[in-house]
Structure formats: C-alpha cells, structure tokens
Amino acid sequence: MLEKTELLGARWPNIGIVTAYNDMLSAHQPFERFPEIVKHAARRNGATAQVAGGVPAMCDGVTQGQDGMELSLFSRDVIARSTAIALSHDCFDAAIHLGVCDKIVPGLLIAALRYGYLPHIFAPAGPMPSGITNPEKARVRQQFAAGEVGRDVLLAAEAASYHAPGTCTFYGTANTNQMLMEIMGLQLPGSSFIHPNTPLRDAMTAQTTRRAVQITNMGDEFTPACNVIDEKAIVNGLVGLMATGGSTNLTIHLSAIARSAGILINWDDYADISHIVPLISRIYPNGIADVNHFHAAGGMAYLIGELIGAELLHTNVTTVAGGDGLIEYTREPIRNAHAEADTVIFRPGPTDSLDHEVLTTVAKPFRPDGGLALMAGNLGRGVMKVSAVKRDNWLVEAPAIVIDDQNDLMAMHKAGELEHDFVAVLRFQGPRANGMPELHKLTPVLGLLQDKGFRVAIVTDGRMSGASGKVPAAIHMHPEALLGGPLSRVETGDMIRVDPANGSVSVLDVDLSQRKAAEAPVRTNLSGLGMNMFAPQREVASDAESGASTLGDMDRMTET
Q: Which residues form the Dihydroxy-acid/6-phosphogluconate dehydratase C-terminal domain (predicted)?
C-alpha cells in the first residue's frame, strides 16, 4: 500500500522493467530472480519498480537447421514492438532492460530509442562457466558430420559445453551484444561478463537499479537515451566490434539500431573502421579461449583502456555511468565490503593484459585490421568475417554448386558428391524470401572438406551466425535472390571467385544480365510453427545492409 500511495503522489521515480525471462534457455533463466532484486533495490533508493512487460527470447542454437530458424531475425522486431507496448502506458521514469542474446538486445534497444526521452539501462545476466574447450566441441561436431561418431557422442559434447545458467561462452552474437552495450555506455562498467547467480552479479543488478533511479528526471543526473546514443556512440560500437572480432549479425543489427536513433550507416562504414582498427582480442571462433578467459585476462576495462590509449574511441560521450564519459569504463566493479551487501565500488581496471594470447596491445595486434571485409562484385554486396579464416584459405576460385536449401548440400555430402573444390551458392535465404535464417548447420561439413585440402567457400543471401568460423563465407548478399538479385542467375558450374583480400565476390566470364532469374522454390512449411503469420513481415523487410527491418519509418529514412 505504501508503494501505491507513493505512486499516486508521483513523489518518487517509478522504474519499468522489460524482461526477456524464460526458463527454457540458459541465457534467460537467471532473469527469473532479477525483478525482485530490482524492486528491493529501488525501494531502498526511494523509488518503485514494476515489470512493465515481457518479450520473447528464442535461441538460434536450438533452432539451427530447423524451420523455426526462419522466425529468428524477425523476432528482433517483434521484441521491439513488445517493448514499445510495455512502455506505452507512459508511467515510467526510466526503464531497465533484461536481455542478453542474439535478437533480444537489438530489439530492446531499437524500442528504447523510440522512447529516447527516457533513461534506459541494460542489466545482463552474464555467461555460464566454461565447459569443454571450444576446439574439442568443434572436433566432435566435425566427427559427427563425417559419420565417425554417433548422435549420443554429439549430445554429450553439447551438454558438456552448455551446462549451466548464462550465455554460451563463445564469442557469438550474445556476447558481442554485451560488449556493445558496455562500450556504447548503456550498461555499467564491467557488467558484461560476470557469472549469473553470484554475489557480484546480484550486487551489479542492484547497482544498475540504483543508477537508473539517479538518472531519472527526478534526480540531478538526468540521462535520457537520446543523449547516450549518438554518432560517437555508434562509432565506438563499430570500433569495439572490429577490435574484438565480433559477430557478423551485428552488421545487420547495428544498422537497424543506428536508424532507430536517426543515424545512417552502411557496410562501407564498417569496412572503413575495420581497416584502421586492429584485432586485439582472440576469443573463439577467432581463437581457442572463451569470454571467461577474456574477462579474466583484463576484460572490457583493459580493452577500452587500450583503445582509448590508441585514440581509437571517443571518450567525450554521455553514458549511464555518468562521470568522465567513456573513461569510467576503464574501471571494474568489486563488492563493497564496508557498505550494504548489494553495493559495488569501481576500481581502476588492469592496464596490462594477464594473457597475451587472449588480449594483446594495439602496438602488437593479432591482426592489423578488424577482420571484417566488405564483399562486392557482380554478385552483389555482402560481408565476410575473415578474422577466423586462415589466410591460406581466403582465396577460392572454383565452380559453383547452386542450391536453394541447406539440406540439399547436406545430402550431397552424405552421398560423397562434395569431394572437390567448389563454392556453395545458397540462395533464396534473404529477409524477403524466408526471414534470413542462420545457416551455421553447414559449418561442420564445409570445415571437414576444407580440412581435407579442398578449396571451399559459401556465398549466400542468408546468415552464417555470430560463430562464423574458419570457412570463407560471403554472407548477407543483396539484392537478395527473391528480388531478382544476381544470385538468382548463377548456375551450377559457373566459376566463382571469392577474394576477401580485395573485397571481391564475382562470377567469372558470365554476363548475368543475359540470364533469366530463377524462380523461388515453392514453400511447403509455411503452415508450421506459425510462419504464415510472418508473411507481412517478409513482404516489407528491408535489405540486410539497411538492417533487415520490418519497422516501417526506419526503412524509409533518406539522407538529408
């Protein structure tokens, strides 16, 4: 009753909680406890907090290779719409967003920026402890693809990899999201990679609440999201993406996020920044370490400090942490033993890496660039994550194998028909065609063939996920095949040249304009899993470079 009375009098801030909790998925399960932590912390700091709404949270790993993957990308915009509905009651002075994984964080942020006049702060759950090593996990997957081990061995390895609450520990989209929210100033310093259900994580969640109260317009440090996300913050996010070798999915999501803030970026911007920002972090799939090793080696505080020292980041930015701009993010949290149990203090972070195989310096980088290549040619525009591809495997010039379904390539492999050099051209996988599913199911097979000495690559208008790995993959190609893009005119046997060193992906000695575009395959799965409900989204989705968005006015932005 006391809280109701205070709310009626509007004498203290009311914090809205938007949560991606579910207890099916490890990354979201910890959020079950967060609302109570937030509510208690708000009450102790002269505020109230309410769960404003929930958003869906699906896992690309669970749906990998399944029909449900075709809903994955569009779930981002469903999350954005759900967040907008949660905040539409217009009775909150700030919002705390509980999300970590692939489409969830971008969806939450896209909506938050539509409510840019409010303060918004993100509270992550953190990664699970390390399981079996990433090379061992990859080895078992390739053995399964080769038929050398059974499904029981595969399942045992997967269970040992993903074994506890928290995000997956490889550096895919989920953990790239956390890096971005921190380096863009939307999370508290050092909050990204603390394990769930630990005293420090709980204290950080309470501290996040405390900070949300302080930055409302009822305090002295009013910090609306429109003051946090500007051009400098977007550039800082791009720099972080390149310096850490982050997920290729963010080449889509950051474009959509920027547009939600009224800022236009394209893949030329990504490529330009990649050329000048060195790769100084080596986390799987760019190395064998996981995010827990990254965090222990110095983590975000060291990374940001090193990039600031090299003048590669804007420090004069507004962040939810306040204080001295991005300089605050060179600090790391520890529990405050001399105050309340759920408070933290921030101490200077490490200025030297504790493991130079995981975190290095700008002066001695793992790569001189960020490892993301813009791919352009007579097959359209796309991107390639080359940071995990050995330089000897970059250039592939081989005949095309044209397929419209990833399962067709799997069947060819099982039949022994892929024991040669080739470029798999997998088309009709764009946003308009089928929602642009991830195609990471192909990675073990292609990796196995590459290990046998064959020159292989993939060119697709689909996605290959945040774990894009050791096989050269020109992905997100547009114009997509469904819209008559060049991939729809390629035929099996055409010679394809994939050349990331020169940013080129082309068919050789063929004038594609003289060919008729292939017709899209007849879809037979639309009645399953509610995919027919997403037909309106497929009809209006923008291209990948613009963010593959279905949110209307964002897609009609033009430069002024």
A: 357-548
